[in-house]
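[recover] target loaded
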């Protein structure tokens, strides 16, 4: 089967299991997940969905999220959207009736994944307004990640060519290609902000474009002339949100006959003046403070700060809140050219991979979980952690905590080097693990930066492995999880995942 047919088949298999096109309210995707807005989640046939070969896991949040992995999700999503549109319009081909595969399969990995979803659901029900706001902000930046990655890798390649004095005639062109998006990122942020908060996207982009317009240098605010780009993405976000507020106010009060003239004009004028004479200056001060705070934290906290950041990142990933850090990363990249936080946070994935190897070795008589580990470990090395989190460590309980321990020690190692004066940063956001190597940058040369990051990964692997191997299981857990299927006295096979999680 060709790759195109395979992705179409995946989309076609998913659609009926989520209730069909009539149950789909919205379709979107991020780096690894197909995000669906569903009218009625009770129509989802979750066990069958999890059994699909392409599905790595399920996450229930404000949207129903199907983990497909990087690359795959970007190709399956348009196929899925086309099927939804065709079925809605009544033009979708009627598939041949397939034999009923019978009841949903009961396996250790599907039960483990179910346990992960139950925990995620409990945490989602406890979501606070602040967490929901962070998720909305994340929704603004997630669509920008592919461009950030592409431009970041090109910038890294260009820096290497410049340092080696190779191809001097092409480096200027590469610099323009890598910098063009970052120079105008405020416009895209404004567009997505207006879309997320219910305004007109193009008006959000228009207001945010003021931030990067060269002519703002002639405007004086708070006794100083503004600088193009002052306030960066934070200023653009605030300007577009204000624009949405003004636009909604106008829509409620302006007569329909003149709405098309008055509302856009008032929106851009009011939000634009507020941006020039307030938001740009304030956002610029906040951006400077974020950069200074990150430098101070790692210069003075070093290993301790890295330990906390690396150890707490997996719970953020579990809750889907890690994407709320994107504005901070982007602000640091705008200011210093790289973010020093991402390589430290990436150590969480190293701890997770080390823990997974320990789980594999500690459960020699559980082929189901071992198969899950083998299939999810390589994506884990490349920075895709959801399959290991939701399919292995989280439902087992203790291995999730020991994986966090591995990330903490890896983060402490990288943080220590930052404290000693070797900044280890990333020129873009998105990847982690081995996939972060092409994006590394720092203040001591690429070789030393790569060496420190690689050593940090090794520390994370080893610490996560040792913590999980020795402390990740109780004797009771090992006895139960290593019980051969069908042996006398074995307990009900429909409950081990939940039971083990509770005992952990």
């Amino acid at each position: 089967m060709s790759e195109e047919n395979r992705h179409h088949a995946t989309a076609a298999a998913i659609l009926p299991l989520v209730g069909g096109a009539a149950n789909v309210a919205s379709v979107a995707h991020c780096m690894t997940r197909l995000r669906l807005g569903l009218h009625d989640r009770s129509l989802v046939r979750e066990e069958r969905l999890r059994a699909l070969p392409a599905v790595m896991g399920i996450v229930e949040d404000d949207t129903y999220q199907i983990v497909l992995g990087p690359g795959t999700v970007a190709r399956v999503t348009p196929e899925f959207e086309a099927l939804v549109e065709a079925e809605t319009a009544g033009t979708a081909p009627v598939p041949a009736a397939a034999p009923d595969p019978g009841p949903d399969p009961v396996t250790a990995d599907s039960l483990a994944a179910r346990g992960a979803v139950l925990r995620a659901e409990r945490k989602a029900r406890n979501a606070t307004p602040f967490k929901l706001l962070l998720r909305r902000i994340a929704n603004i930046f997630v669509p920008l990640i592919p461009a950030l990655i592409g431009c970041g890798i090109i910038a890294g390649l260009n820096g290497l060519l410049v340092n080696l004095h190779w191809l001097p005639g092409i480096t200027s062109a590469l610099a323009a290609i890598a910098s063009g998006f970052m120079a105008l990122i405020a416009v895209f942020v404004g567009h997505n902000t207006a879309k997320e908060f219910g305004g007109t996207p193009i008006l959000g982009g228009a207001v945010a474009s003021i931030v990067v317009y060269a002519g703002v240098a002639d405007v004086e605010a708070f006794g100083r002339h503004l600088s193009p780009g002052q306030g960066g993405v934070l200023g653009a976000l605030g300007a577009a949100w204000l624009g949405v507020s003004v636009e909604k106010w106008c829509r409620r009060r302006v007569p329909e006959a003149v709405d098309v003239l008055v509302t856009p004009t008032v929106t851009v004028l009011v939000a634009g003046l507020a941006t020039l004479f307030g938001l740009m200056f304030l956002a610029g001060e906040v951006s400077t403070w974020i950069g200074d705070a990150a430098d101070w934290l790692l210069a003075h906290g070093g290993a301790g700060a890295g330990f906390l950041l690396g150890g707490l990142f997996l719970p953020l990933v579990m809750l889907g809140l890690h994407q709320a850090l994107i504005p901070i990363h982007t602000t640091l990249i705008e200011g210093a050219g790289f973010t020093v936080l991402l390589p430290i946070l990436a150590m969480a994935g190293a701890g997770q991979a080390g823990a997974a190897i320990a789980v594999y070795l500690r459960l020699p008589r559980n082929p189901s979980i071992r198969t899950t580990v083998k299939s999810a470990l390589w994506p884990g090395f490349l920075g895709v952690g959801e399959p290991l989190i939701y399919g292995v460590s989280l439902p087992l309980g203790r291995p999730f905590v020991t994986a966090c321990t591995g990330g903490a020690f890896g983060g402490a190692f990288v943080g220590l080097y930052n404290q000693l004066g070797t900044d280890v940063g990333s020129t873009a956001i998105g990847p982690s693990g081995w996939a972060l190597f092409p994006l590394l940058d720092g203040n001591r040369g690429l070789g030393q930066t790569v060496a420190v990051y690689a050593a940090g990964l090794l520390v994370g692997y080893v610490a996560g492995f040792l913590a999980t191997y020795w402390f990740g299981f109780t004797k009771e857990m090992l006895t139960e999880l290593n019980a051969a299927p069908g042996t006398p006295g074995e307990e009900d096979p429909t409950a081990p995942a939940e039971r083990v999680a509770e005992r952990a």
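[recover] notes: The CA atoms of residues 112 and 278 lie 51 Å apart.
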